[in-house]
């Protein structure tokens, strides 16, 4: 059985995410966050260690999505 933990995001971001996923295959904010984090982890595992430029690119993408300030 898979165990879960809670990740908190600001409510205004949650509303934006809900609007964004409307009409997609994502059924919840949690689905989208799992997908994004899994994608980052897989990318990291395939490439080994992330370069500073790759890390910054991922961070910028997360900022653009509103996950980072």
Automatic annotation (TrEMBL):
What protein name applies here? Ribbon-helix-helix domain-containing protein
Q: Which organism is it from?
A: Halomarina rubra
């Amino acid at each position: 059985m898979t165990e879960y933990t809670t990740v908190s995001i600001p409510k205004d971001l949650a509303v934006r995410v809900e609007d964004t996923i409307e009409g997609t295959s994502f059924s919840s904010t949690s689905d989208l966050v799992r997908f994004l984090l899994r994608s980052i982890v897989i990318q990291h595992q395939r490439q080994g260690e992330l370069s500073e430029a790759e890390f910054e690119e991922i961070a910028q993408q997360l900022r653009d999505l509103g996950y980072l300030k």
